[in-house]
Each structure stands twice: as structure tokens, then as C-alpha cells.
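Chapter summary example.
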Amino acid sequence: MLKLVEKLDVKKDWSDHALWWEKKKTWLLKTHWTLDKYGIQADARLLFTPQHKLLRLQLPNMKHMRVKVNFSDRVFKAVSDICKTFNIRHPEELSLLRKPRDPKKKKKKLEEAEEETLELEGPLLTPGSGSIYSSPGLYSKTMTPTYDSRDGSPLSPTSAWFGDSPLSEGNPSILAVSQPITSPDIVVKMYKPQSLLDKAKINQGWLDSSRSLMEQDVKENEVLLLRFKYHSFFDLNPKYDAIRVNQLYEQAKWAILLEEIECTEEEMMMFAALQYHINKLSIMSSDNHMNNSEKEIDEVDAALSDLEITLEGGKTSNTLGDITSIPELADYVKVFKPKKLTLKGYKQYWCTFKDITISCYKSREEAHGTPAHQMNLRGCEVTPDVNISGQKFNIKLLIPVADGMNEIWLRCDTEKQYAQWMAACRLASKGKTMADSSYNLEVQNILSFLKMQHMNPDPQIIEPITTDINPECLVSPRYLKKYKNKQPGFVRDLISARILEAHQNVAQMSLIEAKMRFIQAWQSLPEFGITHFLAKFQGGKKDELIGITYNRLIRMDAGTGDAIKTWRFSNMKQWNVNWEIKMVTVEFADEPSLAFICAEVDCKVVHEFIGGYIFLSTRAKDQNESLDEEMFYKLTSDGKSSTDGRRETNAEHTVKELKDPCSVQVKRRTKKKIPFLATGGPGDYATFICLS
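The structure predicted for these 692 residues follows.
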């Protein structure tokens, strides 16, 4: 490379340039190696090119930014650097996604909607000097508040807010402040998945985190989507995470508007009211912040800490109660077991909920005898079916059995009863009892979620219907189509009135609290956090869906989306991938193993989702917040992904650990035993990398 630069005789900084081997899709980054060691011969075509190139990123708020990204770094590292630029903590939750192609659009028009592109040559211009871009408290354990916990605005001037990042000179509000949708046409032009199969096709576009952008044929100036990939949001704190909270809110908002996730009409009006409230407060806060440098930030801390605990699944100090006994529920509940060709006929039972088991008795007096039905809820699917105006409070349970799932419906009479039983069912599905400290908090969250959906019986609407509501920008097209036979003006006024009615339930919330409530409500939807992939299961005749969430795998019907069978990660022993036939096999402690072939998607994407969620489950607040990249790669890599295309580095790392001799059976075409050296005692797990 030195001789090449001397021959070119052009005076410039060449330090960012490296050699790229197109045929093998490999960066030649080990400059102490010879070309011969890389296996390069005289006819090889090498490209001498900068490692940092411009990328057009579409953020969760649908705004586009041009960022310089290292095309030789693994995607996991590149995303981590991007998040440092944007002051987003926990970058392991995000990744890059290719833009889905709308099958209705035959030709690619010029990207009209992308005129708002902010050029941002971030920390990635100078490799290795990332420290100046880490903003105050970003990865330290003794963090100081960076944002106002009421409206999410910076507590200090923008230069301190973004450190030396060019964002301090640009317009930071594009990231931390929600910008209202200005025209219904924006929503109409967006690609909307019409079915579960369409959603599965979008998920084919996730980039491989273990390989670089160049290795995955990403071109300079290409548009990629930066999205929250894993729906497990750790330590979400408004004091340090205004940008992260806003981008999460934006991703949730667009998921609801583009019908990527199902919700009821009452829930849609609640989301629209929160959105309207957030839009109003965002405009007010951006106007007022310049005049208001000091604000009281402690008055909502207590409420926000509860919200924070909810979103991170932590524990509260005031809900411990009596830890010597496990609480129980006992009440009359209507129960229904669907059978073929039967109408929904609920039968009332005296039901007791102890530990993780529901027992049903014909009457209260028989509660000391043998129950008529008994259900163990460990590993079950819990789905709400609620209609506030119709006073319908149903809980759908899919309970795992040997040959699939048993469907049971519970009907409660009141909101309070529903909240208690729903919270208990959710905990029981995870193997937890009502003694868990999160039970009371879960009950309160369900009650507050229901309260936000109440329509105010008082006909007096606080504010007149104004033109700034624009309901077409607040509700999804499906709910507008319901009134397609009505006059457009009438529909607009009707929906606006319903939004204002729902707004009275949230009108007192601060800006950041409203965003947190929106995220929390999004997390409460039955379909939240399920990533779908098309798959063919062993023994199955047709294509079905595999759904992956933060704690389980779900086999689903491709047409209806109904769960056929569920497997919890907590019950999983190991999973393996056969890369040749694209088959994923998962073994469980006390269940038959699961095997499926990935259809239309690289099984590496599915493998990475499973490994990624397991990696995220190891995070703890008392840990140092630096990321264990190597652990992530061990759990998600296919063993051949590396920036130089060789496996030798991993092999060397493994060899250092090897001490005691043992023999290992290698499962391949031949069952020949090969002698290995391995650490640990009998029964311990070890990872082996075969060099030949």
C-alpha cells in the first residue's frame, strides 16, 4: 500500500484507505500479512478505497441523515458507533434493515420524501477517536441527568448535549423532538404490509451483524433503515434517554399508523389522543425552551421512575408485601373451552389462582374438593380481548400440551378483576407467581391502560374542534375506511371529536410521560415484539410462520396468525443450525426438539434473533455498561463471518483455553471420533472450531 501511494504521488491523508478483494468479498486489514498469505494471486482484482463512506440512514422517525460509516467494521460495531453519534444508549437493541420494496410500485421514482436530508459526518471520520463523541454519562455508571425529565429537552446548551458531534452545530431537534406528520399523503405513500407474509418479507432485510457493510453488498449513499431490532428495552430512563425515548415513540407510532401491529378501535383512539397531545407539547416546548433555561425536574420523578421500572421489568421497593406467603386469587369467573361447531357458551366457575395454576370448581362450597378443571399456565400464550364500551373483559389462554395448544377463554366482570387475573396470567406464563414484586405494578399498568381508553361520558369537550387535529395523520387508514360511505367532512369531525374525547384522559401528562405511556401501551398490545419469518416445520406439509420474541418461539398459522405451539427460551437447552439445508434445530429440557427450515430468508437472520435475545437477557444494571461484543458474536455468528474472511483468530483464541485431553464426537456425515483438548469437567459445555 505504501508503494502504491508513493507511485500515485498525490498529497492527501491516505490513512483511511484499505484494500478490498471484490471476488472474495474480503477486506485486507491485516497489513502485516503478505498478499500470498491471504491467498491472492497475480490475476486478483483489488480495490484501494476509503473504509469510511457516506450512508443515508432513515431513522425511526422517518427522517433521513447522511452519516459517514466504517464499511470495514462489522455491522454490530458500526451501529454502536452510529448510536454514539446520536447519543442513543444500548446500541445492541438496534440494527440496520434494507428498505422493503413495495410490489405495487414498478419503477423507483426519485426519493421525493427524502428532501429533508441532514448531512452528518459524525465520529466515524477519524477511526479510533470515538472518545470525544461519547456524551456526558453515556456509558458511565455515575450518570448525571442530561435531559429535562418533563419535556426531554437538553438541560445544558446543545454543545454540551452532543459533545463535539456535528449535531451541536446542526439541528438536534430532528432526533429528540417529535415532529408532527404534516400531510395525510405522507402516510398514504408509505409501504404498508397487507398480511403476515408481507411482514415476514420485511424481516428478510435485516443485515448480518457479524459481517461488514461491504461484505453484504451495501453501496455508498445507499438508504438503510436504522431500527430497534430487539424489542427488549433495557434501563429506559428519561433523564438520559430523550433521543432514545423519542425514536422508540416514533417507531411505535409508525408501526401503528402503517398497521404493522393490530389494535382495537378504542386503542387506536387512545394512541391518536396521545399522539395529538405529544404533537402539541412538542411545538410548545421547542418554542418555550429558548426562554426557559431552568425548570423544576423533580415533580414527576416518582411517576417516571415507576414508568421506567415498568419498561425495564425491574422491581419497586413499595410492592414487596408479605414475602412469606404467596398471594392467591379466588372469584367467580366465566370459563369457555371452544370445541368445533360450538357457539361461545361461557360457564361460571369458582376459580382459584394459586402459584401458576388455575383450578375451577362448580361452586364456592366445593373449593376444598377435586376441581372440575385445572390449568398449569407455565409457557402459555396470554392474549387480551377487551372492549371498554361493551364492558367486555376477556382473556384468551393458549396452554401448551403434548400435541399443540389448548384454547381456554376467561371472562371477567369488572376492570379490577380483569387487571388482577390478567397480571397473574402474564406472570404465570413466565413461571412466576403473584409473590413476584412486579405483580402489583403490572395490575396498576393494566388499569391505567384501560383508563386511557375510556370515553368521557361528559359531552362537554374542553376545546373546540380545530383544523390542527388532522385525524388522517393520527389514525391508520383502516379506521378511516370504516366511514367511507359518509361525507369526508363528517368523518373528519366525528374522528376528531373521538380523539378530543380520549385526549381528556391524557391531557395532564407531561411530554416525556406521554411518550413513555405511548411506548408502554404499544408494549401492551398482543402482537408486540413478535418478529415473523416464513418456515417449514419438520413433519408439516405447508409453509407456516415462526414468531420470535424476547422470551419465546411461536409456531403460527400463516393465514390467521393464530399460535399453534409455543416454546420458552427458559426451557431451551441448545440450538443448532445446519447451514447446508438451512435447518434450525432447537432442543428443550422436557419437550420434543423443534426443527424447521427457513423459507425465503437466510437462516442466519433467524439464528441471530434467537442468539441476540439470549445475549440481551444477560444484561444487568450492576454490570459495567460496556458491550461484550465477543459474547454477542459467539451467540449469533455462523463461524465464518469475520472482516478478513478467515477463522484463524477465533481458533487461536480457543486454543489458548485448551488444557485437558478428551474425545468429542463430531456430528457430520461420518461419525468418526476426533481427539480434542477441552477445558472444564464432565458435562461442561465447550465450543470447538475445527481447523481441518
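To summarize the output: The chain has a mean pLDDT of 80.
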